[in-house]
Amino acid sequence: MKVVLVDDDSVYRFVGTTLIKRIEQIDISEFYEDGESAVEAIKAYTTETFPDFFFIDINMNAMDGWEVLDEVERTQERLSKQSIIYIVSSSPLAQDIEKAQMHPAQLQGYILKPMGMEKLSKALEYKGEDFLRL
Fold first, then answer.
1. Does the pLDDT of residue 62 top 90, yes or no?
2. Which of 18, 28, 71, 118 could form a cystine bridge with 2, CB 3.0-4.6 A?
């Protein structure tokens, strides 16, 4: 399983990195500190290297998570491959959650920070069709 985390908050990235590396099922993990570097990597993915999961913060400097999601969507279409995508945010605003639910990249859910092992495990294991809110 390959997981990508995109977040400009160094503390959250450290916590996320620590949690992700503790999960045995995750073979490959990538961490990006801004939207620009994430988009560069996303554009370079092939069918073989495309991640199984994305965890993307929406409130980042310069390029926000919505722009990163747009690139994920384009790449999914180009590769005819679907990832499981979660927004990870400190924003509890209903408008952000609704925007995530309606995004054409077909997000799986919205995780409110802080994300600990319990939320991460639930997200990775979730197989339901409803939009997951953690």
1. no
2. 28
